[in-house]
C-alpha cells in the first residue's frame, strides 16, 4: 500500500510536466485546429535560451520571464514567416513543415550549444519538501507553476475579449472576420502563447531530465497523451489528463511486471490510441453537440 | 434623399468563374432595398463582394467613401454588418458570447451592454437562452441570433442573406416584422437578399432583380408588387 501511494505521488509529480506540455498542445490546437509536431523542439530551444541567459549571469527569474517573452515573439514570427504563406495549403503541407521545423531546430540547437548534456538549475531547489521523501521542492514548484498557468489561461479565455476572439476564430473563421476579428493575427497570437507555455514546460522539465537537444522527444508524446485524454480543446482537461497519464504510467511501470521501465512510453501511445477510438472528445473535452 | 451605398460596375467571381458581370445599384439612407433572383443568380456573391470576402473589381462607396479596396475586417469597422448565408453562428460559444462578438470592434462597454438589452428586447428568446451553447439553438433562433449579432455593431447598413431560409412561414413573418421595426426605430438601412420575393417586396422600398450576374430590373418595390406582368416575367408568381 505504501508503495502504491508513493507511486501515485511520484506519478502526479511527473504528471505535472506532462500537464504543462499538454497545456501548450491545447493552446496550439485551439488556435490552429491541429497539432504542432515541432512543439517539443521549440520548447527545448527556448530552454536553451534560458540556459544561455543564466550562464551569462542573468538571475533565474529574470531569465525565466525574458525567455517567455522571447519565445512568445519567436512563436509569432514562426507563424508569420513560415505558416501564414501556407494558409490555404492542405494539412499535409503543414505536417511536412512541422517535420522540417523540428529537424532544423534540433540541429540548430546542437550546432549552437552542442549535444552534450547540461544541467539546468531549479528555482525551487531539489531538497525534499518539508523533509518528507515523497516529493521534492522542485516537483511541488512544478505543480504550482502548472496550476497557476492553467488558472491564467482559464481567465484569459473566459474573461478577456482577446480570449473570446481567439475562441471565435477557431470556431468559425469566416464569421469571425465578419465581426471584424483579424483572424490571421489571432492564429499568430495562438502560436505565440503556445510557444511561451512550451518554454515554461521546458524550463520546468530541464532540471529533471537534463538539457540536451533531444530532451523533449519522449515528453511531447506524453503531453499529447495528456491533452488527448483530457480533451484537446479543454485546458483544464489537459492538465488533469497530464496528471493522469503520469500516474497511470508510474503504476503500470511498477505493478505490471512486463512493462517495467522500458515500455513506459508505449503506455502513452496506448492511451492516445484508446482515447481516440473509445472517446474521441477526451474525458473533459467540451461535448460540442452540433445540429446538422 | 442621399445615397448610403453606391455600387458601380461590380465584377466578382470565384477563381476562373465569373459570377457578377458589372452590376450597378444603390441604397438610399434609411431605406430597405431588396435584391431578388433565382438560385445561382449571384445574390450571395454580391453580398460577399461588398464585404470583400471574395475578389472583386468596380466601385463601392459608403457615404461617398470608397470601400472596395478595404479588407473584410475593415469594412465591418465602417459600419457594415453582414448576416451571412447559413447564419454564421459561433456554434461552440454561448448565445451571449455570440452577441458580444458582434460588438468586437467597439470599445464603449456601457453602450455595448445597453445594446445587448436592446437585442434581448427584440428577441426575448435569446435572453432565455443566453448561457446556452449557440449551436444548439433552432434554425429560427439562430437566425435571430445572427440578426442580433449584426445589431451589436450598431451598423449603418445591414446585409441580410436569405433571412427566411429554412424558417416556418410564421417565424419568417415575425422576423420580417422585426426588420421593419429595426429600420424605423433604429434607423438601420438594409439590403435584403431573398428567394421569398413576396415577403421581401412587402418590406422593401426599392428592389433590384438579378439574373445570372446582371441587374435586369430596378424600381420601387411597390411597383413590382402591383404589376402582375412584371411579377410573372421575373418572379414567376
Ligand atoms: N464558393 C464558390 N466557389 C465557386 N463557385 C461558387 C461559389 N459560390 C457560388 N458559386 C457559383 O456562383 C454562382 C452564384 O452563386 P450565388 O451563391 O451567388 O447564388 P445565389 O443567387 O445566392 O443563389 P441562392 O439563391 O441559391 O443562394 C453559382 O453559379 C454558383 O455555382
Ligand atoms: Mg445565396
From TrEMBL, chain A:
The chain crosses the membrane at residues 6-30, 60-83, 95-113, 133-157, 185-209, 215-232, 239-259, 265-285. Keywords: Amino-acid transport, Cell membrane, Membrane, Transmembrane, Transmembrane helix, Transport. CDD domains: TM_PBP1_LivH_like. It holds the Pfam family BPD_transp_2. It is a multi-pass membrane protein. The keyword Nucleotidyltransferase does not apply. It comes from the Bacteria. One of its GO terms (cellular component) is plasma membrane. InterPro entries: ABC_transp_permease, BCAA_transport_permease. It is found in: Cell membrane. GO terms for molecular function: transmembrane transporter activity. GO terms for biological process: amino acid transport. Belongs to the binding-protein-dependent transport system permease family. LivHM subfamily. This is Branched-chain amino acid transport system permease protein. It comes from Camelimonas lactis.
From TrEMBL, chain B:
GO terms for molecular function: ATP binding; ATP hydrolysis activity; branched-chain amino acid transmembrane transporter activity. Residues 5-237 form the ABC transporter domain. The keyword ATP-binding applies. The keyword Nucleotide-binding applies. InterPro entries: AAA+_ATPase (IPR003593), ABC_transporter-like_ATP-bd (IPR003439), ABC_transporter-like_CS (IPR017871), BCAA_Transport_ATP-bd_LivF (IPR052156), P-loop_NTPase (IPR027417). One of its GO terms (biological process) is L-amino acid transport. Signal peptide: none annotated. SMART domains: AAA. PROSITE patterns: ABC_TRANSPORTER_1 (PS00211), ABC_TRANSPORTER_2 (PS50893). CDD domains: ABC_TM1139_LivF_branched. Keywords: Amino-acid transport, ATP-binding, Nucleotide-binding, Transport. It comes from the Bacteria. Pfam families: ABC_tran (PF00005). Belongs to the ABC transporter superfamily. This is Branched-chain amino acid transport system ATP-binding protein.
